[in-house]
Amino acid sequence: MTTTDQLNRRGFAAMDDTQVRDRSNALRQAVTASAGILPDADLESARAVLDKVGQRTAIGGSRTVVALAGATGSGKSSLFNALAAEPVSRIGARRPTTSRPTAAVWGDDSAGPLLDWLGVAARHRVPADDRFADLLDGLVLLDLPDFDSRVPAHRREADRVLERADVFVWVTDPQKYADALLHDEYVRTLAARRARTVAVLNQVDRLDVESAEACAEDLHRLLVADGIGSVEVVQTSAVEGRGIDDLAARIGAVVQEHNAAERRLVGDLASAAARLQPLVGGQEPELSQGSTELVSALSKAAGVPAVVDAVRRDYQREASKSGAGR
């Protein structure tokens, strides 16, 4: 992975992997020290995160992967096509559904290795004269299968790609915006990963202005309750083309920051360390001065030094960031 002193062809800084590398090393140290001590299932989960981080950072580049995710009939494929300005993603004739992810790519830089890693075969390169070409340069936009699909394979595919995306765009509609599946199993779960999030209330053409505003406000309330501190709801109508420019602007702002992938990976690492924390003591044991060997043995048995240090580093970094931003 290139660092901030290295630039891509357009002069933008590629992902700065300093935090990712430091936190990966700390978590790896914790996992190694805890082998045979902490439950295998918990350690395997942490190892899976480390594998994902290693694979993503090895690809390099500064592209941002944005996933359009939503329930059946929410109109995310129509929004996808509207953003790409072409009918790229097929919309089901009988029951609207997407069976495999489709990608739209903005910019000239190669996205092949990244799309291979994402496991997305259907790819469309947006022309350089597209109206959003400059704003979305560097974007890989994915149209995912419905996460509430009655076909288990479709839902598994959506879950697989969501696990690797950098940014989530939750597309819902006036009928399903409060659906428990969306909030309990997806938004609330992924909110802890610190990934950038955009919320879309689509199909507002079915409502009058006052009702659309009420739905948007209620959706915002639910998202805050899910743990997303700062999120705005974009009102759209793919049928009428309303809100498409606004949605493109929100996505473009995230893409131009060139750090969404880093944020997602750092969030994954922090979450993995936090899941290990309750399995060990909160502090190292205090014994007599002459009990050095026993202290070392007990500390190792509890997995305290490595795991607590990994979590402590995470908290210290966040505290430093908060202090610097005041």
Give a written overview of the molecule.
By secondary structure, the chain is of the alpha/beta class. The protein is built from 11 helices and 7 strands. It folds into 2 domains: 18-59 and 281-320, no CATH class; 64-257, Rossmann fold (3-Layer(aba) Sandwich). It has helices spanning 18-34, 40-59, 76-84, 112-118, 152-162, 180-191, 209-226, 244-257, 260-276, 292-302, 304-324; strands spanning 64-70, 102-105, 122-125, 139-143, 167-172, 196-201, 233-235.
Summarize the structure.
This protein has 326 residues and is of the alpha/beta class.
CATH topology of the largest domain: Rossmann fold
What form results from the Cα inertia axes? globular
**Helix tally?**
11
Radius of gyration: 22 Å
Fourth-tier CATH superfamily name of the largest domain: P-loop containing nucleotide triphosphate hydrolases
Helix content: 40-55%
| Sequence of secondary-structure elements | HHEHEHEEHEHEHEHHHH
Helices and strands: which structural class? Answer: alpha/beta
Strand content: 5-15%
Distance, first to last CA = 31 Å
CATH class of the largest domain: Alpha Beta
Number of domains: 2
The CATH architecture term of the largest domain is: 3-Layer(aba) Sandwich
Q: Tell me the number of strands.
A: 7
> What's the mean pLDDT score?
82
Low-confidence stretches: 1-15, 92-96, 287-304
Strand arrangement, major sheet: 3-2-4-1-5-6-7
Q: Sheet with the most strands? A: 7 strands, mixed
Q: What order do the helices and strands come in, and which of them pair?
A:
Elements: H1 18-34, H2 40-59, E1 64-70, H3 76-84, E2 102-105, H4 112-118, E3 122-125, E4 139-143, H5 152-162, E5 167-172, H6 180-191, E6 196-201, H7 209-226, E7 233-235, H8 244-257, H9 260-276, H10 292-302, H11 304-324
Parallel strand pairs: 1-4, 1-5, 2-3, 5-6, 6-7
Antiparallel strand pairs: 2-4
Helix pairs in contact: 1-2, 1-9, 1-11, 2-9, 6-7, 9-11
